[in-house]
Design goal:
Helix content: 55-70%
Number of helices: 8
Strand content: under 5%
Distance between the termini: 22 Å
Shape: elongated
Low-confidence stretches: 5-24
Radius of gyration: 20 Å
Structural class: mainly alpha
Number of strands: 0
Length: 254
């Protein structure tokens, strides 16, 4: 598959003309299939990531790889209610048009969004916090199972690349790049889960200070349950393209 800078230019120009399409959402908040989400964004993201020196593969996604990216959507998008701008930034980071470092790291975003919404009582804010944490928790298991299948197939992929003389040289680099992309996505989800946990705790503490309620106990339990569910995902054995030990950055340079 051949790609050229001319394609990037055309994709970028088209992206400008249809940028409003990024706000169109389907199930689970993911972009509804459009020309932007299916054609323009992936092409532009490939070249943007390549220009930043990140690993980027032109290989088609497997069914599991595509599903893993869909399941990651919930976790890499901002948890903060009414965060339209940050939602667009995260959307562009998800397609790799922007680097993941462009996302907000302000743990106060969620609390500000939560308190900007009109609720009948303070209990409703605690309930919303608990509901958000529980919704995250229920989606971690399917993502973890999906990621495990992808990692398993990536091991097969790399063993084949290393062992078979029939794999041409020009297929070896994109094969490795795809493994880096997949592993980087797992790390990114884990970092954003950690950010959500810190954001939820920040919101809970400040809610208790501003408007104490017995509902805080339920919210605290939901946050603790989310943390317990996230731990196996972020400790699952991977191939190790980013090295072992320490905090691994969410980039795709491998």
């Amino acid at each position: 598959m051949t790609r050229s800078p001319a394609k990037l230019l055309l994709a970028t120009l088209a992206a400008v003309s249809v940028s409003a399409c990024t706000a169109t959402t389907g199930d689970l908040g993911r972009p509804r299939p459009t020309v932007w989400s299916q054609l323009i964004a992936p092409e532009t993201g490939f070249w943007s990531a390549t220009a930043r020196g990140e690993q980027s593969s032109y290989f088609r996604l497997t069914d599991d790889e595509e599903q893993m990216r869909d399941r990651a959507w919930r976790f890499v998008m901002p948890a903060s209610p009414n965060s339209v701008f940050q939602g667009e930034v995260s959307n562009l980071a998800h397609t790799r048009i922007l680097p993941v470092a462009a996302q907000s790291t302000d743990v106060g975003d969620y609390f500000r969004g939560l308190t900007s919404i009109s609720f009948a009582s303070q209990a409703s804010r605690y309930n919303r916090l608990a509901e958000d944490a529980n919704a995250d928790r229920l989606l971690i298991g399917p993502f973890r199972a999906n990621a495990a299948r992808v990692v398993s197939m990536d091991r097969v992929r790399m063993r084949t690349v290393e062992a078979s003389p029939d794999v041409p040289v020009d297929k070896q680099e994109p094969a490795y790049a795809r493994v880096v992309e997949n592993e980087g996505l797992v790390f990114w989800v884990c970092e954003r889960l950690d950010f959500r946990l810190r954001s939820y705790r920040h919101a809970l503490v400040n809610l208790v200070v501003e408007m104490p309620s017995r509902e805080a106990v339920k919210a605290e339990r939901a946050i603790m349950a989310l943390e317990m569910e996230a731990r196996p995902l972020c400790q699952m054995p991977l191939i190790g393209t980013f090295g072992e030990g320490g905090k691994r950055p969410v980039v795709y340079k491998g």
